[in-house]
User: Fold these one by one.
Assistant:
Number 1:
Amino acid sequence: MIALAIVSWFVAPTAVHAGDIEDFQAARALYDAHEWTRAISAFESLVGADEPALESQALVLESRKYLAAAYVFVGRERAAADQLERLLTEEPTYELDATQFPREVVQLFERVRTRLAERREAEAARAELEAEVVRLRAENEALRAERVVEVPRDQWLMFIPFGVGQFQNGEDGLGWFFAVTEALAVAGLVTTLSLELAYIAELQTLDEAAGSRLDQVQSAIDVLGPLNWGFGGALGVLMIAGVVQANVAFTPTRSVRLPARAIEPSVSLRVSPSFVGVVGTF
């Protein structure tokens, strides 16, 4: 590794300074001499602070590795794991040469790498779930908001008189016009027809001796007959006109404005040691 650092210095002189290499070599020499306490002190001066004293990233990674190994040798496993975690955070693909370090260091390195991989997976899953929460909340807001939907119409209703077709087309004014006028025409027809039939029945019971009553009944029948035809004709014209107008104005769908939903949906992300997911009410 010292040779690698020296090569890196000659290849990229702006990235590695001579002082960095000398400091690293001095700390490494203490490590090779098994002077663990002094090696730890030397490496801590290089990478122990939040901001490493070394400018070369390659030397930073190497220093963290040897500092972690020295920590293991003096029984400071937690401090060793912290350095290995920093190393793998800065360089996730870093590989430790198992032939250069004892089994305890290699095993700790693998445990830290596994823990970091699991943490990254959990963070990725959390990010995905948070995106899903945002999507679901957006959908819920859309459901709660007032909206317009298209509702299909039945064309057979256009052939029903009394304004039914107009009401289905959303033309309430015309619907009421045809409903009222056709209802009045029906009422007039029923009234005049009933009276005419009554007078005809009475006429059949009268004889010529009835005199003036016979003339009154006949006069009433003569008046009611045209009225019957008038009301019937008006009813027919209104019904035909209403059906024709409804079919001309017919559209396959109609717009209906739906009110906002009364319920308040709640969506949240829950993360615990045994559960990661989206929870809520809809």
Number 2:
Amino acid sequence: MSKPASYLVSLDIGSTKVCALIAEQDATGRVDIIGKGTAAHKGARKGAIIDVPATVDAIKRATEEAEIMAGAQIERAVVGVAGPAVKSFNSRQVVAVAAKNREITREDIQRSLDAARSVPIPSEFEILHVLPREFVVDGQDGVADPLGMVGSRLEADVHVVTVPVATTQNLLNCVNRAGVEVLEMVLEPLAAGEAVLTPDEKELGVVLADIGGGTTEIAVWRHGALAHTSVLPVGGDHFTNDLAVVLKTPVPDAERLKRKYGAAMAALVNESESIDVPLTGGRGVHPVKRREIAEILQPRAEELLTLLWEESVREVPASELRAGLVLTGGGAELDGILDVAEQVLGVAVRRGVPRGLGGLTDVVASPEWACAAGLLLYGRGSAAASKRRSRSGPGLFDRLKGSLKNLFPASTAL
């Protein structure tokens, strides 16, 4: 099997499973999914790799399944990065416009971005993304593209995402040992936003919450640009563990009960419905009302939603998040979670499902595929994706150029 350079491959290495997608990209930029694979993953905890052999095995199993479906061999992929150790901040710096006629050039834009990213970070961290938010020309803010404008002062406002070097190296080592070359690493909620959010939502102000197994990743957009990112160390596994403890049932059975019978709002569940729940230690089963399962899950859902909203409005006022909240990831599939979110937060809420893709779209028509689908779309932006340096990896300048290509037309990209 061979893999043409026009193919795109994504790897979402989560706390509980690994997802792989293979897609074809045509000359128009259309992305058609032709293969997918998943594998249970026990080599990570709260987004951090703790068992390299287990992670390598999960990646191999997921990629092999995708290869069989697509009839292609995976050689390189865009890989998602997440975890509580990821840190981000906004930076804003000013430079003088160099030209005598005060017309802003690409070189001025580059200098302003260099200044905005030249902030000290701990030695154990590296910069993953530098994402332009807006430019300010002589006090005029909200400028998306200052090229050709006239002014004496140019400010660049950027969102900087940093990640521990150990995190990227561990991820890189696992993917490479599985026989896959890493083209690029991308922050997972940023990728998920590519797949599930509309331009209008980003302009109006929206929160994306990707509820994974061990963590919930948050990204906030305002005025069309990323304004804030964060990761909470709470995810779907905490719902499962609550059921296991209260119902005295093994964790695998608790996970099955959550997926098949769980609900985040008790009022939505029939009071009379009863389910046989296995007891730990093989001590038989005991009947439990389905309403009781929902009563265990609802407080955890309310807590998580409250925490993620409080984190979201830390940098952006709630009044500026007019498009509300979009929930994605496997945790977003829990019945009733949208109802609880609307009740607790009082904002518009919807479930985020991948869009903008062709081919076997039915295989990714659920929130748990948002990140993997978004990684495909994120990688699509560069016509030279297959020629990028492996992630021993692209450096900061390569990533910055990618961000600028999304911001400016091709003729103005740096």
